[in-house]
Structure formats: C-alpha cells, structure tokens
Design goal:
This protein is of the alpha/beta class and 113 residues long. It has one domain (2-112): Transcription Regulator spoIIAA. The chain contains 4 helices and 5 strands; from the N terminus they run ββαβαβαβα. It has helices spanning 22-37, 55-70, 82-90, 103-112; strands spanning 2-8, 11-20, 42-53, 74-78, 98-100. It has a 5-stranded mixed β-sheet, with helices on both faces. α1 runs parallel beside α2 (55-70).
C-alpha cells in the first residue's frame, strides 16, 4: 500500500495505490493522519490504484472522514474501481462519502463545500 499526497490549489490530493487491508491498515492510518494534521481542510482522494479494501480499511476511511468533517473540511473520493465501489455500496458508505468519477468533479464538489 502506498499513499501519496499533493498540494494543488488549496486542495490536498491523496493517491492510494495497492490493497487497503488488515496488513496495511496501520501504516495507512499513520500516513493519512499525518497528512490530515499538517494540511489544508479540503481533500480529494484518487482511488483508481486501490485494488482492494477490507473492513479494516473501511474503518480508517470512516475515521478519516470524521476527522476532516470535525475540522470543517471536505473529502471527496473519485475513480473507485468497481470492486471497491461495490464494497462501499454494500456497506452503505456511499451515503456517507462524496464519490465522483473524475478528478475535475471531485475538485468542484470539494470546493463547493
């Protein structure tokens, strides 16, 4: 699992690559918390490289969303692979997260608040 972050016009773009599962969840949590604590309040997450997400990964995603919202920030996910999108749908995370198909739509939604 790899997490890259980029600062772009007042928005932090996160890029997740690999599997977000029990084996990688703790490392992902540390990295994402460091980025959230030291960055802007607006985040978009490119999930095209996320091959798989487990319940451990979902827990961290939910924690991340709560921390960002508590800081009056925004988080928009985009380009979810079909299998990851299906997990989000089954777990009803689609009602919690803003999810778009493209980076442009994610930036627009994130900027709109």
């Amino acid at each position: 699992m790899e997490l890259n972050s980029y600062q772009e016009d007042g928005i932090v773009r996160l890029e997740v690559i690999g599997r977000l599962d029990t084996a990688t969840a703790q490392e992902f949590e540390k990295k994402v918390l460091a980025v959230i604590e030291n960055a802007e309040q607006s985040f978009i997450m490119d999930c095209d490289g996320m091959e798989y997400i487990s319940s451990s990964g979902l827990r961290i995603m939910l924690m991340m969303l709560k921390k960002i919202k508590n800081a009056q920030g925004n988080l928009v996910l985009y380009r979810l692979q079909d299998n990851v999108s299906e997990v989000f749908r089954i777990c009803n995370f689609t009602s919690l997260f803003n999810i778009t198909a493209t980076k442009e739509a994610a930036v627009e939604l994130c900027s709109a608040g």
